[in-house]
Write a structure and sequence with these properties.
By secondary structure, the chain is of the alpha/beta class. Helices cover about 30% and strands about 30% of the residues. It has one domain: Rossmann fold (3-Layer(aba) Sandwich), CATH 3.40.50.150. α4 (about 95-105) links the parallel β4 (about 85-90) and β5 (about 110-115). α5 runs parallel beside α6 (about 140-150). It is globular and about 50 Å long.
């Protein structure tokens, strides 16, 4: 029994380096996704991922999607499974790119995997998107920078949206917006929405809480 205990313990200890998530819904529901723990990569829990996609479930089919800060590609793979027309995966970590390609094996669909810095990709890529998925390292500020570029440069198609996952303890900071709008967004609760205008387009932002995670939905209206 002692040796069995040691064997099981070794498996548990190894799980912090290599584990699996699953696709939640769609054509590839239940498919395992490889997850390798990198210092720059934080996996989105399946329950949070499911909740995020529930917010946009009617938008995903036939959508053009950008999975920025893709990590293992879990969010983008979910979009492929749910019938997205095309998904662009972007991450600047070569190991993450390997995992994304591994997770996409045997998945039919249109997608591209890009080993690139998120801001360089946004600046050089001329495509437009229906859905942009942002899951950057918490407290990095990268998500807010990406949101500013997307909104200022009209990267979204009409009625497109951004999903931004961050720590609930750190409210989103969109410093490029007027001060009064920033204040409303910082104090945004789970029952209200804030409207704002930028680059001649109207947007609406709302917030959801899932444990220690906050998900902001920014929709063009």
């Amino acid at each position: 029994m002692y040796f069995v205990y040691l064997f099981v313990l070794q498996i548990i200890l190894n799980c912090d380096k290599l584990c699996y998530m699953r696709i939640v819904a769609g054509k590839y529901r239940g498919k395992k996704l490889k997850e390798f723990e990198l210092s720059s990569t934080r996996p989105t829990l399946d329950r949070v991922k499911e909740a995020m996609f529930n917010l946009i479930q009617l938008k995903v089919a036939d959508a053009v999607v950008l999975d920025l800060f893709a990590g293992t590609g879990a969010l983008g793979c979910e979009a492929v499974s749910r019938g997205a027309m095309h998904v662009d995966f972007v991450d600047n970590n070569a190991e993450a790119i390997k995992i994304i390609n591994f997770n996409l094996r045997n998945m039919e669909g249109s997608y591209s995997v890009n080993n690139a810095d998120y801001l360089n990709f946004l600046k050089t890529n001329k495509k437009h998107y229906d859905i942009i998925l942002l899951d950057p390292p918490f407290a990095s500020g990268f998500g807010e920078v990406a949101i500013e570029h997307v909104l200022r440069n009209n990267v979204l198609y009409s009625f497109g949206c951004i999903l931004f996952e961050t720590a609930y303890s750190k409210p989103i900071e969109l410093k490029f917006l007027p001060t009064d709008v920033q204040t409303k967004i910082k104090t945004l609760d789970l029952k209200t929405k804030v409207n704002f205008e930028i680059s001649a387009h109207q947007y609406q932002i709302s917030k959801r809480k899932y444990g220690t995670v906050a998900v902001y939905l920014i929709e063009q209206i």
